[in-house]
Design a protein that fits this description.
The complex is a heterodimer of chains A (about 425) and B (about 190). With about 425 residues, chain A is of the alpha/beta class. Chain A folds into two domains: about 200 residues, 3-Layer(aba) Sandwich (Rossmann fold), CATH 3.40.50.970; about 140 residues, 3-Layer(aba) Sandwich (Rossmann fold), CATH 3.40.50.920. Chain A contains 14 helices and 15 strands. In chain A, the strands form three sheets. Chain A has a seven-stranded mixed sheet, sandwiched between helices. The N terminus of chain A is likely disordered. Chain B is α/β, with parallel strands linked by helices. The longest helix of chain B is centred in the C-terminal third of the chain and has 17 residues. The radius of gyration of chain B is 16 Å and the shape is globular. The mean pLDDT of chain B is about 95. Classes of the chains: A alpha/beta (about 425), B alpha/beta (about 190). Chains A and B meet through strand 1, strand 8 and helix 11 of A and helix 1 and strand 2 of B. Chain B: Keywords: Oxidoreductase, Pyruvate. Chain B: GO terms for molecular function: oxidoreductase activity, acting on the aldehyde or oxo group of donors, iron-sulfur protein as acceptor. Chain B: It holds the Pfam family POR. Chain B: InterPro entries: Oxidoreductase_gamma_subunit, PadE, PorC_KorC, Pyrv/ketoisovalerate_OxRed_cat, Pyrv_flavodox_OxRed_cen. Chain B: This is Pyruvate ferredoxin oxidoreductase gamma subunit/phenylglyoxylate dehydrogenase gamma subunit.
Amino acid sequence: MTTATLEKTAAAEAPRKQKVILAEGNEAAALGVALARPDMVSVYPITPQSSLVEHLAKLIADGRMDADIVDAEGEHSVLSVLQGGALAGARTYTATCGPGLAFMFEPYFRTSGMRLPIVLTIVTRDGITPQSVWGGHQDAMTVREAGWIQVYCESVQEVLDTTVMAFKIAEHHDVMLPVNVCLDGNYLSYGASRVELPDQADVDAFMGEKNVNWHVALDPLRPMAVDPLTGGTTGKGPQTFVRYRKGQCRGMQNALSVIEEVHADWAKRIGRSFAPLVEEYRLDDAEFAIMTLGSMTGAAKDAVDEARDAGKKVGLIKIKTFSPFPVDALMKALGKVKALGVIDRSVGFRWNCGPMYQETLGVLYRLGRHIPSMSFIGGLAGADITIPHVHRVIADTEALLNGAPAPTEPVWLNEQD
Amino acid sequence: MYEVRFHGRGGQGSVMASGILAAAMVEEGKYAVSIPSFGFERRGAPVVSFLRMSEREIRQLTNIYQPDCIVCVDPTLMKSVDIFAGMKAGGTLVQATHQPLSELTLPDCVTTVGLLDAVKIALEIFKRPITNTLMLGAFARTTGVVSLDSLKRALEDSDFRDAGLAQNMTALERGYAEVVVHQIERRAAA
């Protein structure tokens, strides 16, 4: 290849100019959806909804997005409508949260079993009761064992970019699983930030050809039984059921490398990089670490910088991909530190700790090295996780490093706010 | 980092004002984040919105507890809410009011004050007491951290159209032109 050809290729692959705008997280998600060109969107447009679907409806009404929008009579119908669309070969999308997600649960579980690559944004919200409409991760955490991929975003830009990538991950033929893009209610959903909007032609090249129903279809030219009756005591029934479940688990494990590949491809084509599974921040020379998820991470990074300036050898581990849980990537990160504090924005009722903390304990067991650790729970029902809150986490975790006994109960960060 | 806290009542557009100001700052090449304190707010209830501006990327997505500047788009709010909570020393207040400075009780942390009779002007322009864009004009003049032109461009890119856009442009300009800015000399503590 001549030098001239090389330069031409490089120029063709460099991302086109990106428009800089101010967008709230909900608008960024809608813009990401529009860039991915879905064929069908279905929503239930009332509480608990967010401005996300208003932005989508406007994009469609303004002709900036060419998709059918179906206002269904409830979230259960929303996801059922999208299942039909996906089986007919459509790229499909919806958004919900809290009680809407709960009402969606029956088709939610079915979606991953049928291997339908639907993308669903959860604008995360705390669980009721007590009554609350504010943010928290409890809704997404509650459905974490239903076979969906779940990724959490730190910033509005990451919401936009990840929303596009979610379709590519879901539709990868080694994965074929639905994806939740989790975006923190309030702080991200209504928080407006400067974002860069990728060029449509660059995104089209990134997305490639769509083929979402090669494996299961409602298609008169390919008649097949969809979602057949399986199970039972012996024979074909339970064997088929096991084959489905093993396939789902394999798809989840395949997703780990696919998520990495898709992020790398996005970085190459669009020019922005995000850690796909686990981000290590100032970790290489750290003695202890704090662990975060979602929009709390920005303030936590600022706090880590301040603590570093004060001479504390602290690093940060951010989980982006929560499901499948990135065991190997997290083992690599945890292998670098001698004490750990994990901040959750939801409650694990069974273990009396945060759910991410509980998952991490399993990783520490596999790592085969005991390090002292503790669980912090903050940001419930809209509460803020500020730099001072994170400094408390850093101080308590440093105390563990220096031999303080680990508490048996979580530290509730906003208890005295 | 420059931090602004907007105070208003539900329906007055303080959250929208915070968003338009952030868009104007982005227009100027800066980083800005605007986060409303959201919930079951209804018309008339006190609402708050937070805005951060920086030359560098802003990572923390949190509320603001120690603002450099407070913009209060409602003239009666100061009586029912401690709008000055946590304000930094040497701070700026941009207040909608018909009262002169001498009739306001302000804490020592406030040293720059922009006062605008925003309700009276809003009634002239909109026939309704919608003060948000007027107060953005007043903010630009009082603080100098954003230009009137950038605010106008941000307004053009917003959802305002036709007559509504023209009225809000007028409001921006009149807010900028008619705000009365005071510097308060504070005696150093003895």
